[in-house]
Write a structure and sequence with these properties.
By secondary structure, this protein is an alpha/beta fold. It has two domains: 62 residues, no CATH class; 148 residues, Molybdenum Cofactor Biosythetic Enzyme, Chain A (3-Layer(aba) Sandwich), CATH 3.40.980. Helix content is 37%, strand content 19%. The chain is built from nine helices and nine strands. The strands form two sheets. Strands 4-5-3-6-9-8-7 form a seven-stranded mixed β-sheet, sandwiched between helices. Strands 1-2 form a two-stranded parallel ribbon. Strand 7 and strand 8 form a beta hairpin. The longest helix is centred in the last third of the chain and has 18 residues. The radius of gyration is 21 Å and the shape is elongated. 25% of the residues are buried.
């Protein structure tokens, strides 16, 4: 068992070749280097201009992979970027945080201090897996009525459970919350947490509606809007503005 904040990642070396477990035939090249006829090429890039340069060099003979900046550079070669209007948030709004990313933890703590719309999951609930804490569920419902929004998060106490157990319990808790309250919009922080919650709710079809910012997409499933956000990504301004804290 591990404490949920002490997460282990597969990447434990700063060498990019070691990160991809290179076995030969891989190369790290600068943007103006000659390209080989075959193999795996990792392009060095320090700036957005470097990324655009790489995108402009590659043709249909390469299988491309990369992050959001690279993907955007590829799209900009073929399409004109359009500006979308900022969507209007639907309330009651549920903000579910399943990340240990410090900025998010600090933001939620500040929200709790300024406005009592945060419901930390009880330690006993997490440890036992019993999500039928009627007193806690009732208090959460009262917060939704009072503020038209609520944050569900894990407290900062060290809890000796696995990450799998933690997200499984959180998913079951959110299902209980959804059964007891009418929620029109939900933000879920943390990819694994989001997958567990959507599975528990039986949601298999999501229709993209808006992109708050790169990598943070607002979708619709039946009669609810759902935004999934990686824990380390910035909170969209429209959602941040619902709460008195700053991030």
């Amino acid at each position: 068992m591990v404490k949920w904040r002490l997460l282990a990642f597969a990447i434990n070396d700063s060498s990019v070749l070691k990160m991809i477990r290179a076995k030969g035939g891989e190369a790290v090249l600068k943007k103006d280097s000659a390209l080989p006829g075959e193999g795996i090429v990792i392009g060095e890039a320090k700036t957005a201009e470097d990324i655009r340069a790489w995108a402009g060099r590659l043709d249909g003979n390469w299988l491309l992979a990369g992050g959001g900046d690279f993907f955007k550079a590829l799209l900009n070669l073929r399409f004109k970027e359009s500006v979308q209007p900022v969507p209007v948030m639907e309330c009651p709004h549920l903000f579910v945080s399943g990340t240990a990313f410090q900025e998010s933890v600090s933001f939620i703590r500040e929200v709790k201090e300024q406005q009592d719309c945060v419901s930390y999951m009880p330690v006993k609930m997490i440890e036992t897996g019993n999500v039928n804490d009627q007193e806690w569920l009732q208090k959460l419902g009262e917060r939704l009525v009072a503020y038209n929004k609520c944050v569900v998060a894990i407290g900062e106490e060290a809890i000796d459970v696995s990450a799998l157990h933690l997200r499984t319990i959180m998913a079951k808790v959110i299902k209980k919350v959804m059964e007891n309250n009418k929620i029109h919009e939900m933000l879920i922080e943390g990819g694994s947490t989001a997958a567990a919650i959507l599975s528990e709710l039986g949601i298999t079809d999501l229709t993209p509606v808006n992109e708050w910012q790169r990598g943070v997409v607002r979708m619709k499933a039946k009669d609810i809007y759902i935004t999934v956000k990686p824990g380390s990504y910035e909170l969209p301004e429209a959602i941040r503005d619902l709460y008195p804290g700053k991030i």
